Amino acid sequence: MSTMPPPPPAAPTPEPHPHLRPVPPVTPPLPGARLSARGLVKRFGPTTALAGVDLDVLPGESVAVMGPSGSGKSTLLHCLAGILVPDSGAVTLSGRGLHDLDERERSLVRRRQYGFVFQFGQLLAELPAVENVALAPMLLGTSRKEATELAARWLASLGLAGMEDRRPGELSGGQAQRVAVARALITGPEVVFADEPTGALDQATGTDVMRILTETTRLAGASLVVVTHDAGVAAWCDRRVEVRDGRVVADVRQQAAR
Ligand SMILES: Nc1ncnc2c1ncn2[C@@H]1O[C@H](COP(=O)(O)OP(=O)(O)O)[C@@H](O)[C@H]1O
Ligand SMILES: [Mg+2]
After folding, report:
1. Ligand 1, atom 17: nearest CA belongs to which residue?
2. 119: helix, coil or strand?
3. What 3-state class would DSSP assign to 250?
4. What is the pTM of this model?
5. Residues flanking ion ligand 2, Cβ below 5 Å
6. Which tens digit of pLDDT belongs to each residue from 177-196?
7. Which domains does the chain have, with CATH numbers?
8. Band of the pLDDT at 121, cuts 50, 70, 90?
């Protein structure tokens, strides 16, 4: 009888294929959240703007995202808004993965489900106030006549009756931001994003704009995400999230100013 050759030495355990490596556990979106971010990472070359951000925003809730300049606030807002695609992580809006959509579908989400208020309003300088506001529903298929009537009602409800035909250059900074608030809310969005909405205003006017922004989004049932480095602005929100070096370092509920 021939003897069996000795078994070959055991091969070292191979490294698993990168796709098969266990991924760190990711908590699912909070049930009932309107907007959820999980593990958001965004790099610009050597700079890590977001280093793994989780955030849940409830329906109707207002959240101030605070932090010093360069901490990643605007990058976070742009990822939540589907303007920037994160390198990894996911954003879920009302149960739908934003980054599973193609660019055309994401732009529809931005028009239908989101509203935006920026530091300088981003109004179209050549259009009168009423047309700046009416444009949002017209882009969703509402007739010019109906959109214009609705826009005039929104302007009146924000204290701008009689200013419908003024161009942005003929409005004060505070009035222009009211037009921007009307434009953001006229389409009935689920979430309104504001990036330093009072950054170009004096303090009294800024307070006025924050009162109108928070009151109007609350009445409309929209959630609000406000990026600011100003504690006075954050005081108008139900919750304060602090960002440092691309990470959330604090998340506190508070009694919002009214
Ligand atoms: N488009 C970009 N290209 C290169 N670096 C960027 C870009 N956008 C942001 N950054 C960098 O990412 C970091 C976070 O920026 P940002 O989100 O704008 O901060 P914040 O809004 O808190 O001031 C900063 O270091 C900034 O310089
Ligand atoms: Mg910013």
Report:
1. 72
2. coil
3. strand
4. 0.88
5. 74
6. 999 999 999 999 999 999 99
7. 31-250 (3.40.50.300)
8. low
